[in-house]
Write a structure and sequence with these properties.
Order of helices and strands: EHEEEEHEEEHE
Structural class: alpha+beta
Number of helices: 3
Pfam families: Glyoxalase (PF00903)
CATH superfamily of the largest domain: 2,3-Dihydroxybiphenyl 1,2-Dioxygenase, domain 1
Number of strands: 9
GO molecular function, one term: dioxygenase activity
Protein name: Glyoxalase/bleomycin resistance/dioxygenase family protein
Keywords: Dioxygenase, Oxidoreductase
Radius of gyration: 17 Å
Strand content: 25-35%
InterPro entries: Cadmium-induced_rsp (IPR052393), Glyas_Bleomycin-R_OHBP_Dase (IPR029068), Glyas_Fos-R_dOase_dom (IPR004360), VOC_core (IPR037523)
CATH topology of the largest domain: 2,3-Dihydroxybiphenyl 1,2-Dioxygenase, domain 1
Length: about 160
């Protein structure tokens, strides 16, 4: 694995999802990306975010089975912990399904994270990498630290 030749010189990330409900998903992704679709027909909607080098397309399912178990999740990085918390409040205000409330996780890749579900059930991770100062505060038990009061699991 370490002796890899150079990969393609990418300049944009593109993802395309088949969806059951194009209007609901277009509304969700317009909110998530803070951008209206560049193009939207009865068959697809295309979202471009040049600042993220993103070209994201949602396409009607055409009766094809939607295999949600083949896509783990999509992710959107934000600036910092405060932006993760703000994203949570925006999601709640917008009526988005929150899968996991904002928290700081330590195991695996330490992150501030928030997990949402789009209208078709796809997982969306909103995350921010921890600063060196935040990494220095890692608890011995490595349990998640919930970032918004009242969102901790009960039980």
């Amino acid at each position: 694995m370490l002796a890899l030749p150079p990969g393609p010189p990418g300049t944009e990330f593109h993802a395309s999802l088949r969806v059951a409900d194009l209007p609901a998903c277009a509304r969700f992704y317009a909110w998530l990306f803070d951008a209206w679709p560049k193009e939207w027909t009865h068959r697809y909607a295309t979202f471009l975010r040049p600042d993220l080098n993103l070209n994201f397309v949602i396409v009607v399912a055409d009766g094809k089975p939607l295999n949600h178990d083949t896509l783990y999740h999509l992710g959107l990085a934000v600036a910092d912990k405060a932006a993760v918390i703000e994203s949570y409040h925006r999601a709640v205000d917008f009526g988005v399904a929150v899968e996991k409330p904002p928290r700081t996780t330590w195991k695996g890749t330490p992150l501030h994270e928030l997990w949402l579900r789009d209208p078709d059930g796809n997982l969306i991770e909103i995350y921010a990498r921890l600063t060196d100062a935040e990494l220095a505060t890692k608890p011995a038990d490595e349990l998640p630290a919930y970032l918004v009061a009242g969102t901790e699991p009960t039980g």
